[in-house]
Amino acid sequence: MAGASLLTLIDDIATILDDVSVMTKVAAKKTAGVLGDDLALNAQQVSGVNADRELPVVWAVAKGSAINKLILVPAALAISALAPWAVTPLLMLGGLFLCFEGVEKLYHKHTHDEIHDASKSFIGQNESLTVETSEKEKIKGAIRTDFVLSAEIIVITLGTVATAAFTQQIIVIVGIAAIMTVGVYGLVAGIVKLDDGGLYLSISKGKSIFAQLKRKLGFGILAFAPYMMKTLSVVGTAAMFLVGGAILAHGIPAVHHWIDHFGSTLNNGFLQFIVPQLLNGLVGVVAGAIALLIFNLGKRLFIRKAVNKA
Question: What's the average model confidence in pLDDT over 185-197?
Fold first, then answer.
């Protein structure tokens, strides 16, 4: 009797694990696009720091990402159970924030206001302090961006397992959160240290064919790495608009249906895929520009009031 009960328990556990495995694979496929954007964004955001500080910065962001997920996983489960209507508005706020950060980045890159000039002067006076401050800002910015993308990954996963038992929901969501964190930041660490790997290979000694191939590969990596980082910078900024715009568009049924309908009218399969993405990106650019305009106006009004009070 006890043996039969044990076999039944083992069978039940095996069934649960099989269901969890299937749901995890489905969730992983659905979040793969966001994972790519997360990778591009984080690799781009932690680039530009000193070579000896690259891995510590990646590690700091990875720890921040883990904390984000420790907050988001229980919060998502609680909101889904108690207030499912709040999931979409919160996700849209996150999408708007991504678009805002993307436009703000472009704005500061192509304008040189007094604050920017003052910061350049400050670098000349105290470079080490400014580099440390810049590093901290990069970490904070990467963690903020990760929070939004992690929220989207968790919400997508939650939608995949919405009809499953609560225990299975927890296992799948925690599993996806862990896999995404380790996967993304493991790859980010590899990307930012790619040039160091190329340098190591390029100084290999020896006259054998293998040694010569290692040196050629190293020089090739060193030549390729800067272009890859520039590409990731562009892709990372574009991803802010694509992901943020898609979140906003999906939250507005009329816009979402129009984009889907317009894409379906195109005869070419590639255009059916790329045009909706571009339209989502356009939504992101417009939304980010409006958000930045409102933010700058609000900041100027706040400063003006503070000056008048003084």
Answer: 80
pTM (two decimals): 0.65
Give how many domains the chain has, as a whole number.
1
Is the torsion defined by CA of 84, 90, 95, 98 positive or negative?
negative
d(CA 271, CA 277): 10
Cβ neighbours, 10 Å, residue 41: 30
Sequence letter at residue 18: D
Q: What is the DSSP string of 146-211?
A: HHHHHHHHHHHHHHHTTTS-HHHHHHHHHHHHHHHHHHHHHHHHHHHTHHHHHHHHHT---SSHHH
The range of the structural domain enclosing residue 297 comes to 22-309
16, part of any domain: no
pLDDT tens-digit readout, 121-134? 444 445 555 666 77
For residue 12, is it within any domain?
no
pLDDT of residue 48 exceeding 70: no
Q: 219 Cβ partners below 8 Å, 6+ apart?
A: 198, 202
The model's confidence at residue 288, banded by pLDDT at 50, 70 and 90, is very high
What does the pLDDT look like over 23-35, one tens digit per residue?
555 444 544 445 5
Task: Answer yes or no: is 5 within a domain.
Answer: no
Amino acid at site 105: K
